[in-house]
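Recap slide: GIT1 protein, sequence and predicted structure.
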Amino acid sequence: MAPILSALATGIGLLTDKYMLGATNFVEHYALDFHATHAQKDFVKAAMYAGAMLGMIVMGPASDFFGRRLGLILCSFITLLGALLSALAWSENALIAARVITGIGMGGEYPLASSHSAESSDKTSDGARNVALLYLFGSGFGQALCPFVTYLMDVAGVPHKLLWRWIFGVGVILSALGLALRYFAIQDSQKFVESKQAEQKHHASTWKILAPYWRALLGTAGCWFLFDIVEYGLKQNDAAIFSKNASATYTDSILQVLWSRLLVIPSLIFAPWLLTKISSKRVQLVGFLGCALANLILAVAYEELQDLSGLFFAFYIAQLSFQSLPGVTTMAISAEIYPSMVRGTGAGISAACGKLGATVGSYFFSELKNLGEIRAIFWTVFATSGLAMLLTVLTTPYYNGDGLDEADALACDSKPGQAVKVLYAGPKNCDGTEPTKSARYVSEDLADDAEENVMA
């Protein structure tokens, strides 16, 4: 029972995050008592991302010092405060401020929850799978929960001036539940505790350990940036996209958003299994490729598909399903490849770059939506996905659990340069019959070190 509660406590923050992010997809339609301008509506969507970037940059590195448990508890408390202020907001500007506060708490969730999930795995090779299950719980059910709650209240006839507040009110309940679960059910993993002991023994600084990982950091941060342009740019505006195509009423467009979230869940269930069969790098490439092709079709045939609402919806679901693969891997790779003692920092920087992409995508796509340029949105997604594929090929390592263990051990022994070579040497051969490329790198480095010592 304890492992289940711990997993639930870890994942409920991401579920709340996805729920609260989805809220702004609908709130702008119902909060008419504010008489908001287009610019204010766009800032409401972008405000949470600004707070999230701050939360990621601060909470990720901070958790490397005071632990994942305390960091996760603090994230839940800040999110609870922001959600409460959002529900009670008295003006559009007050709502923007409340969303920034919510974003700070939510931002910390990404590096902390993913790092804790990967570090808590019984086997290192299960890290990506466990992060994928975390993503399934958060992105799958969290993103479906918001349109579900909104649809139920809408058809129940809840007055619009109260409906949008109750959307945030459900976020308050989720945040409070997460805070209680984390206080009683989460502990720092043994791997994290051991890494802190090694760090104190060698007096290693965060930046000295992380500096040789510059190529990996370029990959995880860059790919997450590009992915979030796509994901949040679309998901913050797809209610309006659907209402322009197939729906006669806004309520129908909410139902289409709900179905789009539910129909993506099978791909999120498929992702953890796929990550046990092929590498995270290849899963990411498949996801970006599928997303690019589906959006190319949506862009080229947009006018024709407008009259074929079922076919338009099918292609939109296809691109969302492919999106779920890099959605999992951008988080999983960032939570796996950095040494445990600086994992919060590496994952936090990567996640912050992702939310910068979310801010760009949300604002830019909203402007395109306001201009009626829906086709341009799909062209942008196609180009962004293609660029992400190229960056994945050039910067993302191809690794397995044994290689990660060896790299982590070298980093803990104050040899981050050798750790990076192991990471990029490819999956390790565990049967002992042939020397691995990574083993040859380490042997060569040790020989070089010995030669340097003799010469000295």
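The longest helix spans residues 2-30.
The CA atoms of residues 235 and 405 lie 37 Å apart.
(End of recap.)
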